[in-house]
Amino acid sequence: TFRTTVIFFRKNSMTELSPYHEDQELDNNTSDNIHFRDILEQHISRRSLITKTASGAVALTLASTLTGCNDDDNNSSNNGGTPPTPVDPNKKPEKLNFSPVAKNLNDIVTVPEGYEATVLYALGDSINPAYGAWDDNNIPSGLSFEYRSGDCHDGMTFFGLNSSTQRYDANVSERGLLVMNHEYINPTFLHPKGPTKVDGRRPEDEVIREVNAHGVSVIEIKKDKTSQKVEVVKNSVFNRRITGSTVMDFAGAAAGSTLLATAYSPAARQTRGTHNNCGNGYTPWGTYLTTEENFIGYFARNKGDDLKRTKSEIIALNRYGLKEGSSSRYGWETVKAGVLSQDLYDRWNADVKAETAGNDYRNAPNTFGWMVEIDPFDGRQNPVKRTSLGRFAHEDCRTSRVIAGENLAFYMGDDSRGEYIYKFVSDAKWDPKDINGGYAAGDKYMNAGKLYVAKFNNDGTGQWIELAFGKNGLNQSNSVYPFSSQADVVTFARLAADAVGATKMDRPEWCAVNPENGEVYVTLTNNSNRGTSYPTDAANPRNYEDKYAGTKTNKGNVNGHIIRLRETADKTTAESFNWDIYLFGAEASGAANINLSGLTDNNDLSSPDGMWFDPRGVLWIQTDDGAYTDVTNCMMLAALPGQVGDGAKATTSNGTETLVGKKVTDETLRRFLVGPKECEITGVTMTPDYKAIFINVQHPGEDSADYASPSSNWPATQTNPSNKTARPRSATVVITRKDGGVIAG
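Request: output the structure for the sequence above.
Response:
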């Protein structure tokens, strides 16, 4: 989640404040749809679990079992001497028994006793031997970042690489492709002395560096089978960057629509770049899905542009936060080209400047906000924006359990206040023969299908409402926006969801699918307005106050929670579901009617954000917090959850009745790591043998006053805690056990 709200530019000796503020893209739902009002959970009957399942993780779509045995059980105090106890690495642990990590404010990644954390891939690191290593005192050129790590590492997936076929192989752990997002940038430390402006214009090299620091990295890694040491293969032919300028194709319902026509592609078949890539996903055929979240703030739209727009255009632009007079986040449109084409900068201004959309960039914002498919194993073809899955601030995208002969579902959240939860169900039924099918398989499963939005009822049930042109009032007679095609519906999915009465949610963040039962989990990170402009209700029941550092008072749903749902009959095609709340973030010392999940000092947390089920059924929960950081840096926890309906009703401190999932214990929820100062912990993936887990540390030291006074010096502090001069850099960390055993085994 993008949390920085203002950007400072240096201009001579003065500091100039950009007028951009992220609220322009966070709170734009003015519909009358409900906020989960008066919802009460009732007893939910259960069918038996489906026995023919495949995990929500990529690794189990190819094989029913994974290689690996004779690994230590996870006794962190046993580091030698005693023969290892044979275990099945595919088996879900009955309880968590690693040593819980204590809350702390240290400037390192702290992991359990018996584990070690190693920095693998940091901002500016080269992925091509022709380019030198990062140097704090000699920041590389903008163009070189086509071959260097981007900034603000985020969602991430490991794909096993078969040495013989050079394609995806779910059984391989010692060689693979690690694919990760670079959500946005911390310009304070990306440039030699922070971002600058000259006569109101951004310097071209700075902007080239910023554009290239966005997007996605594909890097080959190798892991030693004995020591579990992981390294980047810097001369790999697979290493590449996808950036804010990479050519991409459109596919699906909006491809070829006039809504996507620009001067670059009047036929609306292509665009350039992907950015603000937050959460991620992966497909059972072996490709990567990256999200485009807070995309709208990258565009400028000047005063007076409304006069050149139709009424429906203005409605759509406002609904997505690009109101007349909007400034851009980084000022990319201000560049006067000298190295690259002027067109690469002009595209960030969304004003009407020509007779037709095919001659300007009025529709450029419509070319972002999609799910993007990337084949890590094929750099010859363009990535594909899958428009049938809808356009909104995509936070994450998770595929349902993969079952031969069943339709695939893709679950997605729209990360903004008052937005919605969506799913797309493929018309095609899953065929394992499509593994390694590349973009052709993507065409099969992601172009044709049904897009739905969630509505939550007051009896603990819910409906998926189809967003289809000609259904549910989505036609030209719609009183708010005149839908004329399915391209209209998917391009302006928020307006379609408003029209059908979807339920407003509090910033739906990451999604996760439980491989044991197919239940879908969604993080709702927090809401300072809960109890004021957003009345409390059973699904969002807390309104309380919390002191931060003894001075500032936080209000509302301060610490966030995780909601979950189960499809009727466990079918992805179901148009109804049951739901409850799995977990409430809270401080351990909080009153019982605030700390509703019974958290202790070993597992209390605030603002759950990133989230992923590994193939065994262990749930990994990550935080992006500003409410508990007076006590502890952000963290990741491991969890062993139950199922919808396993808890009981409870009443919150403000008198709202709700249903809480079964209370956690130290054996079912435990803190696995704590990150360095002022970071977000995000992105999580594993090798199929469960012996290496990867996480990302995003924006350490983000609150630094300027480039000369960093408040964090990580990742340099990971190996040299006394370092007080190094620039903070986002980075990927690999965590292994010192005895070579299974993570959380």
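The two ends are 30 Å apart (CA to CA).
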